[in-house]
Structures are given as C-alpha cells and as structure tokens.
Specification:
Elements (H helix, E strand, L loop, with lengths): L20 H6 L3 H26 L7 H16 L5 H30 L3 H6 L3 H10 L3 H18 L5 H14 L1
Helix pairs in contact: 2-3, 2-4, 3-4, 3-7, 4-7
Length: 176
C-alpha cells in the first residue's frame, strides 16, 4: 500500500556496439586543445576589454568564467583523458588572465594618449611590462587568475560514459 520510490532503475541492456578504446585514446590532441584554449582567451579577452572600455570599470572576476570557457574548449577540442589537458588548460587560463588585463591596459593607454591599440602594443618593452605588473596588477588579480586556472583544470578532461570507461579499463588490462 505505502511503498517507497525506487532509487535506482533496473539494469538496462546496452544495444549499441561496444566503444572502441583505441579510437578514444587516438582522438586526443594537445595541439587542438591549445588552439581552442588560446582562441577562447583571445576572443573573450577582447570582449572583456570592450566591456571595460564601455563601462569604465575593470571586472577582475571575469577571469573565472573565462577560465571555465578555456576548460570547456580544451575538453571539446582536445578530447583529453590524462593529466596534460588539465595542466594545459590551467596554464592557458592563468596566462590568459594576465593577458586580458594587459589588453585592457593597452586599450585604455591608447585612449589616454590618443593612439591606436596596435601602436601601443608595438611600444611594449620589458620596462613597460615591469611597470604594468607592479602598478596595475594587484593581489585580487592573482587570486582571480588562480581561481580561473582551477576552474579551467577542473573542466578540461573529457567526460566518459560508463561503457567507455569499462572499454578503457579492459584495454589497459590487456596491455599489462
């Protein structure tokens, strides 16, 4: 009469062909992952700069969603399974956080001195980079860069279903 709801459904039979573990491993590409992550940093870095120019405010917390997008891009384009892909995503997001701040600085400097952004970029030197990091970047930027890198690393690895995991395990057992 009074029954509790079942927590789990009965085991379903898989009707499709078994996944090919060798194909799953062969789909990994560090180069495509790097290209996807760098592309995301460039596109969203310029969008972040445009938003900052329009509002007159710098939003340092935008490095965290950019880091998430980098992680998703690395997962989507790299299709990685091992430690290289989270490390790559974290490095791209970490560098991208500072590159985004640099893009904002270049655009704002160009507006201040009434010059094009590409001319300001050509005028960068080691001395101007030292001044940028000592005068513009503050501890909050470091914290958000670290958080963005963590989010990127968390989202970077490929998500496998149960059948793919079992196929990879059986392949590794056969190899050893």
């Amino acid at each position: 009469m009074l029954r509790l709801k079942k927590k789990h459904s009965p085991i379903q039979q898989y009707t499709g062909p078994p996944p090919d573990a060798e194909r799953i491993v062969a789909q990994q590409s560090v180069w495509r992952a790097a290209a996807g992550g760098i592309g995301v940093v460039l596109v969203f870095g310029w969008l972040w700069a445009a938003l900052s120019v329009e509002t007159g405010l710098v939003y340092p917390w935008l490095t965290v969603p950019i880091g998430g997008l980098v992680g998703v891009a690395v997962r989507r384009y790299g299709r990685g399974l091992d430690w290289r892909f989270p490390l790559l995503a974290a490095a791209i997001a970490w560098i991208g956080a500072y590159a985004g701040n640099l893009i904002i600085g270049i655009v704002e400097t160009g507006r201040y001195i009434e010059a094009e952004s590409w001319r300001v970029t050509l005028g960068l030197s080691l001395d101007t980079m030292e001044n940028f990091f000592s005068n513009t970047i503050n501890p909050i930027d470091h914290i958000y860069a670290f958080c963005g890198a963590g989010v990127a690393a968390f989202l970077a690895n490929r998500r496998l279903n149960r059948r793919e995991v079992l196929a990879l395990r059986s392949m590794h057992k056969e190899q050893t």
